[in-house]
Amino acid sequence: RVTRALLAADLDLGFLVEEDTDLLRGHGCDTGELAAIFDPIDGTLSYIRGQHDYTSLFAVSRRGRIVMGILAFYHPFKCLVGRIDRPQSPAVDQHQATGTLRIVCHYRLFQETYRATRQRLEDAGHLGVPMPLDLNVPEHQPFAWAMDKGLGSNGAAVAAMLEGHWDAYIGPWVALHDFAGPWGVAEATGAVCVKFDTPADAKSNIWAVDPGPRFLVRSPADYPKRYRILIARDQRVADQVCECLASLRD
After folding, report:
1. Quick one: 74 and 106 in the same domain?
2. Which of 159, 109, 107, 103 is nearest to 133 (CA)?
3. For residue 219, what are the contacts with CB-CB under 8 A and spacing of at least 6?
4. Structural domains of the chain, count
5. Structure confidence at residue 223 (pLDDT)
6. What is the C-alpha separation between 218 and 108, in angstroms, rounded?
7. Judgement on whether residues 117 and 230 belong to the same structural domain of the protein
8. Residue 176's closest CA among 61, 57, 74?
9. Is residue 71 part of a domain?
10. Is residue 95 situated within a structural domain?
């Protein structure tokens, strides 16, 4: 449904398609001023299985700037669209600011590889919430509709963060097509997004902020398969998390 709508729209986008599907075959290119990476697989398969996931799209300029993010949720179907060139109202914070940050984390942060990262956050007094969420916790239950195992829960986690349920989201080693939609929606709604230096491999893991362009995408082969990212509700939270993780190596 989302795929057909995007292909029918006059968006002047060149789609950089990571997964090969009959519907998108022939649309993978990087011509035009804007390019996009689109991941239809998660949403399509989850819809068939009756599970819950999201499809993400983002568009980038030649300089690598994300200008649009789309999250498409299923059961029931709805879309969240963020255009960064037309900012919306700032993200809503429903909690009073405290020294303890509530950080929702991609499940990989709770694997042994990132033990030092997790320990650094805990030592600083921050609360790390793993993904997928624990549905036995009452605060997590409203988001059960999107809490299938795996990466599909990240879109819902970012959306819930923007509603004020958490202060930040950390993805230590996530695929570009999986967080592109959440990133675009988050930045369009006033959140602060940070990309860290891309390590040569998963074990190097230095949490240093990448000062260069966020993304330079001209073909599917141009972008690394994994990134480390932070999405925070405001600049104060982003600075606090970055300071906590600065110079840390697992």
Report:
1. no
2. 107
3. 16, 30
4. 2
5. 59
6. 28
7. yes
8. 57
9. yes
10. no
In this structure, the answer to whether residues 61 and 165 fall within a common structural domain is no
Give residue 6's domain range: 2-83
Strands of 227-232's sheet, edge to edge? 127-130, 102-105, 168-174, 227-232, 192-195
Q: Which band of pLDDT confidence, cut at 50, 70 and 90, is reported for residue 147? A: very low
| pLDDT class of 98 with cuts at 50, 70, 90 | low
Task: Compute the distance between CA of residue 241 and CA of residue 230 in angstroms, rounded to an integer.
Answer: 8
